[in-house]
Amino acid sequence: MLLTGTVVVDSATVIDEGAVVVDGTTIETVGERDELLDRYPDHERRDFDIVAPGLVGSHIHSVQSLGRGIADDTELLDWLFDHILPMEGSMGADEMRTAATLGYLELIESGTTTCIDHLSVSHADQAFEAAGEVGIRALMGKVLMDQASPEPLEEDTEEALAESEELIRQYHGAFGDRVRYAVTPRFAVTCSEECLRGARELADRYDGVRIHTHASENLGEIETVETETGMRNVHWLDEVGLTGEDVVLAHCVHTDETERDVLAETGTHVTHCPSSNMKLASGVAPVLDYLDRGINVALGNDGPPCNNTLDPFTEMRQASLLQKVSQLESTALPAATAFEMATVNGAEAAGFEQLGKLKPGWKADVIGLRTDTSRATPVHDVLSHLVFATHGDDVAFTMVDGEVLLDDGEVVGVDVEAVREQAQTYAEQYS
Ligand SMILES: [Zn+2]
């Protein structure tokens, strides 16, 4: 397939009248449109205004999609224990499947081609199957909770780890290696030391399995961890083995200097979720300091009930604006940096190689966008447009691994109306 438009190769390279040629699951070549049209006259063709790498949402909760809007104006721990965990605990297999499918549809409809997905305690297999059906690329895992958790979510430690291992055997590398496994403790508050150490041991036994958890999102959370362990949260996670180049920590809003040293020294990835951090009044993550220290910072929407959208363009905009206003520095976190966080940094966090740029030999995860709107007139600078003015609705085309998932704005291969109708019906019990 041949895709034409203004081609955003990466944050530093744009081809004004360009084209991308896809062969199988990878990008064959990228270059000038007229030259490539001459070289590949018989290729199936799609024409767009902008062609860009698919975006990477490095922290989401697809299975919370039925709870969009149920817990606004609430801080994290009340939001979680009073609203979200009761919802997750009451969801059966069919509800999980529908919620996850809805989440993945929203992602591919708005330009996210890869996600790091934090599921729930039960019925995680349903989300894996949903990812396979929709075709999204994902690092994902069943949630572990073995202490301080409401019924019926609290699990026996060994059983929780055994179920995780079963899911690794079944789904790690599944669907043409689009789906990989992350061992996923909820956060230190709801996981025993045995559980956290077990998560590390389990991840170490399987090549490519990563670890993903929440960390230092909220002041109440870090106080609880410090009371129970005598340590700052990141030091505690480091003590039990949950730092390193295969670990992705969501949030890291409240960290001190010594914790940031640990993150940098261990190569731990951080996912910044600006909308969620603002909506739950969690705070402002020290993203600029992390980047200065060489810490890989990716970008995530978090879940539909704390954002309340999975639009990746909104998240890039929020990431930039939040640093500018909190630092009172207009040059802070420019568009190029936000774009890197949502592309290559996310790919690095998720552990997918050759992903996040439109380069020959790299994975064919590509999006096509239209600019025939008043909001997109004019486009002086395409990167600025993508970060500050684009909405997910501007995405007309989404390709993962060379497979077209969204074509002319329509999802391919999934009955979207049926999923939405089912989701609406299931969601009524949570309002
Ligand atoms: Zn989260």
UniProtKB/TrEMBL annotation:
Give residue ranges for domain Aminodeoxyfutalosine deaminase/Imidazolonepropionase-like composite. 18-42
Q: Does the keyword Hydrolase apply?
A: yes
Please, which domain of life does this record's source organism belong to?
Archaea
GO function terms (MF aspect): deaminase activity; hydrolase activity, acting on carbon-nitrogen (but not peptide) bonds, in cyclic amidines; metal ion binding
Per its UniProt record, what InterPro entries does this chain match?
Answer: Amidohydro-rel (IPR006680), Metal-dep_hydrolase_composite (IPR011059), Metal_Hydrolase (IPR032466), MQNX/HUTI_composite_N (IPR054418), MTA/SAH_deaminase (IPR050287)
Q: Where is the Amidohydrolase-related domain?
A: 50-404
Entry keyword Cell inner membrane: no
Question: Which keywords does this chain's UniProt record carry?
Answer: Hydrolase, Metal-binding, Zinc
Q: Which Pfam families match?
A: Amidohydro_1, HUTI_composite_bact
NCBIfam families for this protein: PRK07228.1
Protein name from the UniProt record: Cytosine/adenosine deaminase
